[in-house]
Amino acid sequence: MAEKVIRVDDIDGSEGGDVSKRDFEVLGRVFTIDLSDDNHKRLIEALEVLATFVDKAVEVKPAGKGRKAASPAKVKGYSNNDVREWANSNGVEVSERGKIADEVYAAFIEAHPDAKPGV
């Protein structure tokens, strides 16, 4: 049994022997679309115009995801603020914000027998 495939132009809905799958590339991504010869010619012309602008343009990178949420304390039962307060009151150098050095956590755990290393 024979089958007949009729391609329909994805832009104007026309059918015809000249309608076929057409691949094209935009900014490194490949797309495919069913187009007649006339609409394929229009696509090529549009891509050439677009290429003129893209060649002169500068890519804008997406913005970062913003500030990360504060990381959980590395000591169960105590907050990072508790560790900082202890360090400051015991002459251990610690930053006011940001990452607390592993050595500070180790000293805190040593000074607090009930403290357990967190995950």
From TrEMBL:
<feature type="domain" description="Lsr2 dimerization">
    <location>
        <begin position="1"/>
        <end position="57"/>
    </location>
</feature>
<protein>
    <recommendedName>
        <fullName>Lsr2 family protein</fullName>
    </recommendedName>
</protein>
<dbReference type="InterPro" id="IPR055370">
    <property type="entry name" value="Lsr2_DNA-bd"/>
</dbReference>
<keyword id="KW-0238">DNA-binding</keyword>
<feature type="domain" description="Lsr2 DNA-binding">
    <location>
        <begin position="77"/>
        <end position="111"/>
    </location>
</feature>
<dbReference type="InterPro" id="IPR024412">
    <property type="entry name" value="Lsr2_dim_dom"/>
</dbReference>
<dbReference type="Pfam" id="PF23359">
    <property type="entry name" value="Lsr2_DNA-bd"/>
</dbReference>
<dbReference type="InterPro" id="IPR042261">
    <property type="entry name" value="Lsr2-like_dimerization"/>
</dbReference>
<dbReference type="Pfam" id="PF11774">
    <property type="entry name" value="Lsr2"/>
</dbReference>
<dbReference type="GO" id="GO:0016746">
    <property type="term" value="F:acyltransferase activity"/>
</dbReference>
<dbReference type="InterPro" id="IPR036625">
    <property type="entry name" value="E3-bd_dom_sf"/>
</dbReference>
<dbReference type="GO" id="GO:0003677">
    <property type="term" value="F:DNA binding"/>
</dbReference>
